[in-house]
Design brief:
By secondary structure, the protein is an all-alpha fold. The protein folds into three domains: 52 residues, Arc Repressor Mutant, subunit A (Orthogonal Bundle); 43 residues, no CATH class; 44 residues. The chain contains nine helices and no strands. α5 runs antiparallel to α6. It is elongated.
């Protein structure tokens, strides 16, 4: 028979697999916590020891999603994880610098040719918009701007 892992061991197990935001880890651990256990105290200790970091989590999400998504979609995901607004602003600034290049790579992989009809232009615009790219970026790309 196996012993039930402590809340700290469970938290470290989660964090050993991937980065979590504080709010996300809290949601995962709350069902395992005893009523007398102070979960926020445990999360504070994990942050102090460097195991839990919202900044690392934001960087991880941005890195994973940047190759497939635009700034708006990544920022919305970070907001769902209840991250600090200044941290989200920093990630947004970093991503906006490369948004056109990333949109161009995604568009080139999917389509490769500029739209010749309004129906095709609308299809390509919707595709890029659903990926979270700004309308100005989409217009610049589909307008043939900055061709290499």
């Amino acid at each position: 028979m196996y012993a039930k892992p402590s809340l700290r061991a469970r938290a470290l197990g989660y964090l050993s697999r991937r980065e979590y935001s504080r709010a996300e880890l809290h949601r995962k651990l709350i069902s395992y916590a005893d009523p007398e256990t102070d979960l926020n105290l445990l999360l504070n200790v994990l942050q102090d020891e460097g195991y839990l970091s919202d900044a690392r989590f934001a960087e991880s999400v941005a890195h994973r999603r940047a190759a497939r998504c635009g700034v708006h979609r990544i920022i919305n995901e970070l907001k769902q994880h209840e991250l600090d607004a200044t941290l989200i602003e920093q990630v947004s600034a970093d991503l906006q610098a490369s948004e056109f290049t990333r949109a161009k790579a995604i568009w080139r992989k999917k389509y490769g040719n500029f739209p010749t009809t309004s129906i095709e232009r609308a299809r390509q615009t919707r595709f890029l918009a659903m990926r979270g790219f700004a309308h100005a970026t989409i217009a610049r790309l589909l307008g043939g701007g900055d061709e290499d």
